[in-house]
Structure formats: structure tokens, C-alpha cells
Structure prediction request, 329 residues.
Amino acid sequence: MKDIITLGIESSCDETSVAVVKNGREVLSNVINTQIAIHTQFGGVVPEIASRKHIENISDVTEAALKQAGITFDNVDVIACTYGPGLVGALLVGVSYAKALSYAIDRPLVGTNHIEGHIAANYITNTKLEPPFLCLVISGGHTHLVHIKDYKNYEVLGKTRDDAIGEAFDKVARVIGLGYPGGPKVDSLAKEGVPNIQLPKTRFENLDFSFSGIKTAVINLHHKTPDINKADLCASFEKTITEELLENTLEASKKIGVKKIALAGGVSANSYIRSSFENLKTKGFEIYYPELKLCTDNAAMIASAGYYNFINGNISDLTLNAVPNLKLG
Ligand SMILES: Nc1ncnc2c1ncn2[C@@H]1O[C@H](COP(=O)(O)OP(=O)(O)OP(=O)(O)O)[C@@H](O)[C@H]1O
Ligand SMILES: [Mg+2]
Prediction:
């Protein structure tokens, strides 16, 4: 069978990224231009600045991705772009660029769900991984437990009722003065602490999550006890939140009878969460997660998800538009 080369384009938040991926799994290039340094001074992503930077960067990032892969537009078979969920102005840059490119080089366009992309990052790192499996998507904007039945058939089994887990990490980090983006900072400080602080855990009758309670508890504790040990606080926060993730994931696994579990999204870079899930291997579970670079936003994961959409006939036309609140499944 002829190789299929997918050009992936990602611009849903503050990373402009373009990648070239062969047959959905082999990354030939994955160029990521991050705006973190610009947004850090504002303590979070400023949507208008993000859109403007995407416009400034997208052509150069595309050229760099083609060059690193050693190809030209002639070699591209499919163009995949994120069309949601994300910031509307940011998404529109990638979608408009992809549409124009699809028209100019006469190649099919595949609008791709950003969360499907996070899940597909697993296919790149774990080349033998095939559905069905259970995926815990833990990112900056989402917390979903998803049954991946096959490459195009997803069922969301549980999701957060309030904050996404990444938001909770970022908020906790900001309040205790660690800065933005908070997840990696909480991760490293937690390693110096012990989880000796009791924090509230939320459980529902179904497989939903909630992180607003623990986030507020950490903030209140910090305000009421300014000299509290921040490392212990981070370690306790991570431990409690991970217990919630593990309990729901194990219940979902039992419910659907699937012992293959993948983590996805930026928070799956967290070392405590990874090692806690890794421990499940001794109980007969298969555990997968993307390599660190592929956990946070990048276009290789979009190219991979786009490839599977393409071979399953999910092709878009030039009416494709950004959908900021696009749902999964
Ligand atoms: N080591 C880590 N530990 C905990 N959280 C982390 C770590 N590394 C990154 N994060 C968190 O991951 C999030 C960014 O991940 P991601 O790029 O998947 O989110 P997003 O693209 O903003 O949101 P979404 O994908 O839901 O639209 C941030 O909240 C960041 O703090
Ligand atoms: Mg993301």
C-alpha cells in the first residue's frame, strides 16, 4: 500500500505547530512554536495575542516542518487541522490556512478534533497500540474518561462537572506563587514534599469528576495558613487528585471490561500520575501514555488523528469552520 503523508496543523491555543507524519504513526517532523513566554507576563493565555502570533508564525512553521521532513508540498497527501475545541480566533488561523492550502495544492482536508489528537498521540509513541482501550484525557481544558471502541467510535463515560484538571493545577500554582504554566511547577515541587495534608475528594455515583472543591480547599488553606509547606501542599494535591483519577478509571475499566488504559493530554506528563498508573501493571493492566513532548499541544498528534479520519472517510470540505466548543464522540 502507498504511504500516506499527512501534514498536521495545530493552533487551538498558544502553540503554533505543524507536523509531517507518515501513515499516522511515524513522525517525520513536528515543529512547535510556543507562545508561553509571551503569555507568562499576563499569567495566562490572552486570546487576541495568541491569534495574532499564530498569523505571524504559521507560514514559517509550515516551511520548517516540510524542510525538517525533507519533503515539499508535492509529497503531502492529506492536510489535517484542528477545528475545535479551543479559542475561536486561534482555531480560525489554522483552519483558514489549511483550507487555503487544501485548495492551492489540491489535497483533501480533514478537520480534526483536538481531543482526538491528544488521544492519537498514544498511537505515535506506542506503535502497537490499537483500539479498543480506555483513555483518560487529562488536559488544560478537559478531563474525560473515554472508551475508544475503534478509530472512529468513541464513548465518553465520564467527564468533569466543573474545572478541568489542568485548570486546577494551573490555579493552585498561581495562588501559591509558582507561576504559569503551573502543572510542571507543581509536579517538581511536589517531589520535595510529603502528602500529609488532608484534602477533599469528590466522588459521584457515575464516572464524572470534580476538581473545584480541592482547588478551593488548597487556595483557602494557603490563605489561612500562609506559612504552610508548599511542597507538602503540592504533594497532597497531586495524591488526592490522582486517587480520584484512579478510582474512576478502575471503575470504568471494570464496567466495560477493558484492561488496556491510555493517558492523554498535558497533565499526563505529570510524573506522580504516570507512576501511579504505572503501578497498575502489576495488577494485569496495560498502561500507555505519550512521550512527554507529545502530551502537550503539537501537530503530530493532529496529523495522526487526521490520518485515521481520512482512511475512515471522514473528509471535510472548504466550508469547514472553527467550532470552539466541539464535543468528543
Ligand atoms: N508535569 C505536569 N504536571 C501537571 N500538569 C501539567 C504538566 N505538564 C503540563 N501540565 C498541564 O497541562 C496543561 C496543558 O495541556 P494541554 O496542552 O493538553 O492543554 P490545552 O491544550 O490548554 O487544553 P485542551 O487540550 O483541553 O484544549 C496545562 O494545564 C499544564 O499546566
Ligand atoms: Mg491541548
